[in-house]
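Problem: given the chain below (139 residues), write out its structure.
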Amino acid sequence: MSSQWSALLAVQRAAHSTVHVLTDQLADLGLTGSDINALANLGSGSGQTVSELAVAAGVRPTTMTSVLDRLEHRGLVSRGSVPSDRRAVLVELTPSGRRVASAIRRAITSLERRALSDLPAEAIAGLRAGLTAMAEVSP
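Solution.
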């Protein structure tokens, strides 16, 4: 490993590059990178609290609230209460949001396949382990 190479800087470059590619590919949807990130993380179909979604997307809850304001205004998500915790806000995809999230997930899958197709399975497993470890670093 070169002393000039940095895993963190490489991850940041990769993240910025992939966000640009995705926003270009999905330009007809009129979404920002943050919108795409939120919808992709909601794409599993189950609702999440604002806090859970913020953690999954790697942003602060206040930032996620701004993103959700835009997405709710466009009719892509709905917010409601969590029966077991009245203070928590549950975010769910609307039918339109599910269609958009599905398109986003397809674009992500395609981009990952193109980017990683020449790597052996062991390298992809190592990449996954390294990214997971970096994502779990606490302040």
